[in-house]
Amino acid sequence: MSIVDRISSVSDWPTIETEAGVFDARSYERDDGFRSLCFTRPGTELAPQQVFGGSTRVTYRIAEGRGVLLGLYLADDLKGSGIATNLTQYFMGTVEPVEGAPFVGTGKVHKPLVALTFAATGLVPISEDYLVEVLPRSANDTSHVPKVAVVHNNLASGEAIVTA
Questions:
Q1: Which of 37, 43, 59, 79 has the lowest tally of Cβ within 10 angstroms?
Q2: CA atoms within 13 A on the CB side of 80
Q3: Closest-CA residue to 89 (of 136, 54, 121)
Q4: Which CA distances in Å does 55 have to 39, 43, 58, 150?
Q5: Given 3-state DSSP classes, what are the helix, strand and coil percentages for the chain, each rounded to the nearest 5?
Q6: CB 59 within 8 Å of CB 71
Q7: How many C-beta neighbours within 10 Å does residue 46 have?
Q8: Nearest 10 degrees: CA dihedral of 16, 17, 22, 23?
Q9: DSSP sequence for 93-130
Q10: At 22, which helix (H) or strand (E)?
């Protein structure tokens, strides 16, 4: 079965204005119930392959009538723009009026920068097992990928700190 056959459009969401510009929002659903709220410049249509890959999006599920935030992805041109927090807050405040499902929280977050973005919106982790910090960028670093330090709360004496 091709990707085109597995995805259907669910609903149009209200336009969102951010510091990075104005975006149209539309939700899509895969045949397994996984949803993607995609953000595009006005008048831009997504190819089915872009809905779950390459587009700026919030991923979520409607579980037992409740909205559960699962993840966030930004297209390369929006990384570092500060829009991630705006999109997360937009989802949290708009999922109930659009989909009739109140926002209840997130699933387990495995990506440190996504976890930091969620924390910046006011979400509080139920576990304090890890500390994540974005490291200062070197003047010589031309990469768009921030460096982060991840420290596990239960480090044994002499255990290493992970940086990525």
A1: 43
A2: 9
A3: 121
A4: 7, 15, 10, 27
A5: 25, 35, 40
A6: yes
A7: 19
A8: -20
A9: HHHHHHHS--EEEE-----HHHHHHHHHTT---S--SE
A10: strand 21-30
pLDDT (tens, 9 = 90+) of the chain, 164 residues, equals 676 678 998 999 999 999 899 999 999 999 999 999 999 999 888 887 788 787 899 999 999 999 999 888 988 888 888 898 999 999 999 999 999 999 988 877 766 667 777 777 777 776 666 666 666 777 787 766 667 666 666 656 555 555 44
Six-digit token string for 53: 């890959």
- Enter the DSSP assignment of 160: P
CA proximity to 79, closest of 25, 20, 134: 20
Q: Which of 160, 148, 93 has its CA nearest to residue 122?
A: 93
Check if the beta carbon of residue 130 is closer than 8 Å to that of residue 105: no
